[in-house]
Amino acid sequence: MFLCVTYSLLGMPTVLAGTALQQLSPPAIRAQVMAIQVLLVNLLALSLGPLAVAVLTDHVFKQSTSVGYALAWTDGAGALAAIAAFLAARRRFAEQRL
Fold first, then answer.
1. CA triplet 18, 80, 33: central angle to 5 degrees?
2. pTM for this one?
């Protein structure tokens, strides 16, 4: 049951970011804004995520058995960055919605 709930919530960050960008963007450039967002998410998530895990495993923990710790640190750092970005942008988002 926990696995089903977890997988149903995994898509939420991507969907919410796209929805917020659609609400904030002027109608004339919505497609371009979404294209840039998809490009950046894919470039960052698919390149920096695995790279960070590999660097932490090889150079910080120095044990191949510590991949789990490297994943936890990478996910934690990403979550903190997302929280910081959310807190920095929420006032501006609220102003745009009015």
1. 20
2. 0.66
